[in-house]
Amino acid sequence: MSSDQLELLQDYTACDVSDALLKLETVEDGHRKFAGFLDGLQPYAPYHPTHTSQQSRPKIIAPASTVQFQPKAPCNGEDASPKAISSNIDPRSHWADSAQPDTVVVIQQPEGQRCAVLGGILARRLEVRGAKAVIVSGKVRDLGEIGKMKTPIWARSTSTVGTSAEANPYAIQVPIRVGGVDIQPGDIMFCDPVEGVVVIPQDLLNDVLRLLPALVEADDNVMTDVSAGMTVQEAFAKHRKITSTKT
Questions:
Q1: What is the largest CA-CA distance in the chain?
Q2: Of residues 34, 30, 7, the one with CA closest to residue 21
Q3: What is the pLDDT along the chain (247 residues), one digit of tens a residue?
Q4: Distance of CA 131 to CAs 59, 99, 101, 200, Å?
């Protein structure tokens, strides 16, 4: 991954990227393709009350750094720790103080919790550390403070309850899964303030960049022909014939 590749992605939307990933993803029989889309996220910072102001915000495209939380207490006597990995957070330090600059920090919160895992203080620390954006697969709080941040912050919902009620940070820079989408540290986070957030696996970046120009040109041609009176079926048959073969 190079800065030139990330700059090339700026010419496209999250929808364009998902179109490419839909052609490139391979899944086992019976499984769905998610095309990298992280469902249910809403932008909470910087605060922008109208759709028009969202369109003026720049896209944030940068590598992912990950944070995994675990339930604070076991449920029904079970071990609350994730089974696939061991905790790697030094108990003498705070996970936010280890945030990697120039990355999109992606936080995975256990499902079903009512607490927030990010508030105003931690959001400010991540901003000071140089995070490009923060994605919370869970809840945030302190909206008055978060809304004043320059760093874009996305989350699924909000809470008034602090993290310590239900959750503990467990590991950083480990593979996580958000809404069925696997995210590895270093994967490309494509944060589009209008369309949403998409994850590009590192090993598919070159293929995504190869496919994007032809996909966008095809859709532009379809739009032109449909606007001129051609049926959608005819326009699709004429223009949407793009191979998905990986390089």
A1: 67
A2: 34
A3: 788 899 999 999 999 999 999 999 887 777 788 999 999 999 999 865 555 455 667 899 999 999 999 998 765 544 445 555 678 888 889 999 999 999 999 999 999 999 999 999 999 999 999 999 999 999 999 999 999 999 999 999 999 999 999 999 999 999 999 989 999 999 999 999 999 999 999 999 999 999 999 999 999 999 999 999 999 999 999 898 765 545 4
A4: 14, 7, 5, 18
The span from the CA of 67 to the CA of 64, in Å, is 10
Tokens of 124: 């400010």
pTM assigned to the model: 0.88
Quickly tell me which residue has 């029904």 as its tokens: 76
